[in-house]
Amino acid sequence: MSPFWSRMAVVAILLPLVIGVVYLGGWWLFGLAVAGGFIALHELYGIARPARPLLLAGYIGFVLALLGEELGGVPWLLGGILSTLLLSFLFFGLSHERPSATAAFGV
After folding, report:
1. What is the dihedral of CA 84, 94, 103, 80, to 10 degrees?
2. pLDDT tens track for 73-85
3. Reported pTM
4. Where are the domains of the chain?
């Protein structure tokens, strides 16, 4: 099977599921966003592996940002995003291996 048809098969299977979850909204949509975000962050960190990004700060900050938005709206979303910056500084300070600070925070 060619890559195109493989992708079309995945779309045919997952598109109704995604549309149903979007229709349900709320915590179902939160779970879908977390799953999609984890996949996206995994891909990003795979590409940026030579820069040794701070993985844990990114994953935790992402979940906190989505959780803040779900529970308290945009102001709490900003709190989750800022927690990513705080966690980045914390994990960079606790890290035994010292990656480039610019690259670690940028990714």
Report:
1. 0
2. 898 999 989 998 8
3. 0.79
4. 25-106
